[in-house]
Design brief:
The chain starts with a strand and ends with a helix. The chain folds into two domains: about 5-140, Jelly Rolls (Sandwich), CATH 2.60.120.280; about 155-230. The chain is built from seven helices and twelve strands. It has helices at about 105-115, 125-140, 155-165, 170-180, 185-205, 210-215, 220-230; strands at about 5-10, 15, 20, 25-35, 35-40, 45-50, 50-55, 60-65, 70-75, 80, 90, 100. The longest helix is centred in the last third of the chain and has 18 residues, at about 185-205. Helix content is about 35%, strand content about 25%. With about 230 residues, the protein is α+β, with helices and mostly antiparallel strands. InterPro entries: RmlC_Cupin_sf (IPR011051). This is AraC-type arabinose-binding/dimerisation domain-containing protein.
Length: about 230
Amino acid sequence: MKQAIEFTKNDQTYLYVGPRRKSNTSYMIVVTKGSALIRLGKQEFLITQGTGFWIPFDCLHALTILPGSQFYKVEISTRVTASEKNEDKFSSLCKEAGFFKVTPLLSSVLVELANSPESKQNWKDPYGRLLRVIGDQAMQLKVSSKFASPHLAKDYHDSLSTLLAGKKVIDSAAQTELAKLLDVTVHEFETCIMLREALKLSRSGRKLPQIAEQLHTSVDTLKALAQPITGESF
C-alpha cells in the first residue's frame, strides 16, 4: 500500500470468485448495488446493498462478488494513527470479522471519496483527511457474525443457507424474500453459485465433463452460461 488507508470504488461486470487466502491488510466492504459473499471457515455471509463487512488483517477468507454489483472498499494498514493530533499514538484495529453498521457519517464520507476527482486524491489534500476520518471510524467498529445476513428475517435463514450451499429453495415465500434482498431472482443467484463451483473445480484441474457431472448439469449449459456471467470460457 502506498498510503496507510486506501479507497476504491468498484464496478463488478462479471462474477468474481476470489481464492481462499489470508488478508494482507484490514479492509471494509460496503455494497451499494447487488451483493457479495464472504466465506469464513464453514460459514458464508451475504453482503447486500447498504451493508458493510469488516475483514481484519491475516484473516483467512474467500470473497465472491456477483455480476453487476458495485461496492466501496477501504484498505487499512495493520496499524494507523488514532488521531492527527497525536501521530505517535497507535490504536489497534478490530480483530474480528463481521458485519458493521454503515453510519450516516461513514456513508457520507464514502460518497465524498467516490466523487473526488483523481487529481485531488492526495493524502495531504482534503481527500487524505477524509481517509483519516474513515480510519477513526474503523477504530470504533463493532462487528457481528451471528447471522449470515442481518437484513433477512430469521424465518428464512435456513433457506439462505440452502441457497448458498448450491441447493434449490422450494418455498415460494422464502424465494420472494430472498429475491428482495438479493435484487436478482433466486434462479439467477443459483446460476451464479453453480458457476462459482464450476470455476473452482476448473481451477483445481477438473475437466469440463467431470465438472458438469458433479454439478448435475450439462457441458453445453456450462459453456453457454460461462462467458456472459464470468467473462471466461471453459
